[in-house]
Amino acid sequence: MIQLRSVSKEFADGNKVLRNINLTINNGEFVFLVGSSGAGKSTIIKLLLKEMEPTTGTIIVGDKDITKYKRREIPFHRRNIGVVFQDFRLLQEKTVYENVAFAMEVIEAPPKEIRRQVPIILSMVGLSKKAGLYPQQLSGGEQQRVSLARAMVNSPSILIADEPTGNLDPDMSWDIMKTLSEINQRGTTVLMATHASDIVDKMKKRVVEIENGIITRDEMKGGYSSEA
Amino acid sequence: MKLRTGKFFIREGFRSLKRNSTMSAAAITSVIAALLVIGIFFIIVINIDYAATKLESQIEMMVYLEDGLSENIIDTMETEIRSINGVKSVEFISKDTALSNLEKNWGENSYLLEGLEGDNPLPDAFLITLSDPSDASGVALSVSSISNIEKVVYGKEELAKLLNATYVMRMSSVVIILILLFISIFIIANTIKLTLYARRREIGIMKYVGATDWFVRMPFIIEGIVVGMIGAVVSTVILGVGYYYCSGLVKNQMIGFMSISLIPFNQIIVSMVILLIIVGVVIGAVGSLISVRKFIKV
Question: Residues of chain B whose C-beta is under 8 A from some C-beta in A?
């Protein structure tokens, strides 16, 4: 479960990006976070990853209040959250396999488990045959699937996707959405920030809209805009 | 730390050294330069120390005795002096020995001393060498409190000057070496900062997938250590070869009226290798730690 309770965030320059946000996302949900640029979507993601602290309010992830975590507990909190970004953030000098394995290496997973787990996750995103290629040899969609594999390889219970289709053409975007749905159907909670109205409209999932730091809409099986 | 993790760190450390080969070369060069200067100062300091100890050990104290003491009394006095703290050795010089020494020193003018044998005016004396010349005044005080002693003589002022000079030399070398250490740490910190900048994407990913701070830092610290080590090895070789030739050249050369010799190569090389490698590793580790601490904030 993810829960934001009366969360506000004010930057040092006095800019109030979030004002008294209350939001509950249950385990296994698929939620679109929509709103114009600067509305506060990225801030919510940063708060969940504990890259930032809220000015006021509490944030619950799982059953823990993450605002109480100490600095050294943050890495362990993040192991429970997979993240993908618009720009993929792959390591260019590592192969597809190595990019995914890297996420396990850095949390000191046993090599045996890495060798077992990486091929499973690569076949899940349909990249088994491209394991030995480098990111620049792949299409954008494939690169995003590598980053999805990397986000999921440590079996987090939550997946956060920040504009995952922002750099992709429509076909590739649908590819990614299919993979995200599959991940969600396996029980992972998915929170996706996006501007892609066609995707949100067709997926018929829960939509949370933020404008000027306030939740203006929260509907099940919603569309990108309230008129839809 | 698990063994495979150690391997991961070392692999990543070397990989980034290779990847940023120009930067690494620059860092290694600056470490070499710093260690060369540190090494040269080290050599100078311990050679001055060596020369000073040699000179200091030559500082002697003459204790003149009252005339006409019996052998028994002289023997007791000798044991008494020997028991004083800071006395390294005591040698009895009888008035007869003193006279014949004088005759030897005067050479062809020694005929002037003829006839003194019968009524030798020179006193009996003890020649004392000191284990630590800075104790000289204390030892002199203790010795003069023994009865039947006429006079205690030693080069008080010369000794003070010598002690002061070596002290100043040692302290100023320490200051200069400390400054150099700070400079090289600063240079390494800057090199690692560039590596960190070049690898910020990788660091970002590591943090997102939940790598601990130490896990993120370790490869960079290892990179710093490797830079320091390579610098240490190269500068040791340069200094070692240089010292080997110089000590050969200087051997038995006379400078002014002083005979100068350097500490033999095989006595200095081990401590120099150990010193430079430790210094290299420490400045490498500290340098990278400084920049890594600033850069890797979760």
Answer: 2, 4-5, 8, 19, 201-202, 204-213, 215-216, 298
Instruction: Please identify which residue in the block is written with the tokens 């001393």.
Output: B113
Q: Is A60 helix (H, G, I), strand (E, B) or coil?
A: strand
Q: How many helices (H) and strands (E) does chain B have?
A: 9, 6
pLDDT 10s digits, B162-183:
677 778 877 887 888 888 788 8
A50, A51, A105 member nearest B8 (Cβ): A105
pLDDT: which is higher, B170 or A9: A9
pLDDT tens-digit series, residues A182-227 = 999 999 999 999 999 999 999 999 999 999 999 999 999 888 887 5
Shortest distance, CA A104 to any CA of chain B (angstroms): 8
Query: Which chain B residue has the Cα nearest residue A112?
Result: B4
pTM: 0.69
Using an 8 Å Cβ cutoff, are A126 and A57 in contact? no
No. of helices (H) and no. of strands (E), chain A: 7, 10
Backbone angles phi, psi at A89, to 5 degrees: 55, 50
Chain B neighbors of A79, CB-CB under 8 A: 209-210
| Interface-testing mutation among A84, A88, A106, A143, with chain B (most B C-beta atoms within 10 A) | A106
B280 and B28 in contact (C-beta within 8 Å)? no
Tokens of B58: 């030559």
Tokens matching residue B182 = 């700070």
Q: Under a CB-based contact definition with an 8 Å cutoff, are residues B180 and B34 in contact?
A: yes
In this structure, what DSSP letter does residue A17 have? E
What is the rounded distance in angstroms from the CA atom of residue A149 to the CA atom of residue B156?
A: 82
Residues 6 or more apart whose CB falls under 8 angstroms from that of A24 comprise A1, A2, A3, A4
Instruction: Write the ipTM.
Output: 0.85
Q: Which residues of chain A lie closer than 8 angstroms to B211, CB-CB?
A: 75, 106-107
A–B interface: beta-carbon pairs under 8 A: 58
Asked if B175 and B41 count as a contact pair (C-beta separation under 8 A), the reply is no
Q: Could you tell me which chain B residue has the CA closest to the CA of A78?
A: B210
